[in-house]
Design a protein that fits this description.
Helix content is 43%, strand content 22%. By secondary structure, the protein is α/β, with parallel strands linked by helices. Helix 9 (243-250) packs antiparallel against helix 10. Bound molecules: adenosine-5'-triphosphate and magnesium ion. Magnesium ion binds at residues 41-42, 85.
Length: 265
């Protein structure tokens, strides 16, 4: 397994945000992770990526090596990258600089810092720059290379956040609501790019998304959380027809047309 958790648990005071989750992800999968607001999806990502410390008894394995107690930079070095639910880009930097910094911060910052100004570094900078430009072309932002991130549209910033995660050359990409705030056309475009990146770079992907169409159209297996617990797991069809899933969503979000339509389709 590329990623495996055993009894993954996280309390915040009396609240069990993530509650005993066993999770297995094979290399090459595109997995959906869904659940109502507050069901523990982002916390799950924060635990796997080392941002939160898991409770006693929890275990996380990447490539079957235990990473439960590792720091975020150690987990990143294992090839795990993520995007955040709230957009995080360096607004004052250009699009290309955002990717370059994403690369250096995670891939080779220490060796880079140690050798600033030397010829070897300039050569490597050139190579990294070429690689990042190729990545920008792949995500459709090549024309915006020199633009400040603050000038981009929401859709372009979402792409940039994806590009920044990709600049780390990950093997496992954790996407937290990558399509939030996008128009339907931009959602389709983003999905096409994510699947393209997966094929091109041999990625494994986990997508957290409230736009259920995204998950249902893209993922082979969908895992469903509610109150921090895994309540269902299966193909999109299985999950859509699972009574506990319908209840988890409809019990709280009767007014959400899209949820109902997606689940009952
Ligand atoms: N740092 C924190 N301190 C205290 N409570 C937290 C913290 N992070 C998350 N929680 C709580 O844990 C629960 C799970 O939150 P989480 O953000 O993981 O849910 P989510 O499934 O990502 O929700 P959403 O779909 O709204 O993004 C929520 O009740 C949330 O308020
Ligand atoms: Mg969340």
């Amino acid at each position: 397994m590329l990623l495996r958790t055993e009894k993954l648990t996280k309390h915040f005071g009396g609240l069990r945000a993530v509650d005993g989750i066993d999770f297995e992800l094979r290399k090459g999968e595109v997995r959906g992770l869904i659940g109502p607001n507050g069901s523990g999806k982002s916390t799950f990502f924060n635990l796997v990526s080392g941002i939160y410390r898991a409770d006693e008894g929890s275990r996380v394995f990447i490539d079957e090596e235990e990473t439960t107690h590792e720091e975020p930079h150690q987990i990143a070095a294992r090839g795990v990258a993520r995007t955040f639910q709230l957009l995080r880009v360096f607004a004052e930097m250009t699009v290309l600089e955002n990717l370059m910094i994403g690369h250096h911060l995670h891939v080779e910052y220490s060796s880079f810092a140690a050798a600033v100004g030397t010829r070897g570094v300039r050569d490597r900078e050139r190579k990294v720059r070429e690689e990042m430009l190729e990545l920008l072309a792949f995500i459709g932002l090549a024309d915006f290379e020199a633009m400040q991130a603050s000038e981009l549209s929401v859709g372009q910033r979402r792409l940039l956040a994806l590009g920044r995660a990709m600049a780390m050359r990950p093997r496992l990409l954790l996407l937290d609501e990558p399509a939030a705030g996008l128009s339907p056309v931009n959602v389709d475009n983003l999905l096409r790019i994510i699947l393209g990146l997966k094929d091109r770079y041999g990625l494994t992907v986990v997508i957290v998304e409230h736009i259920l169409r995204v998950v249902m159209d893209t993922c082979g297996i969908v895992t469903v959380l509610d109150h921090g617990q895994k309540i269902a797991e299966g193909t999109p069809d299985e999950v859509k027809n699972d009574h506990s899933v319908i209840e988890a969503y409809l019990g709280r979000e009767m007014d959400d047309e899209e949820v109902r339509a997606a689940l009952q389709a």
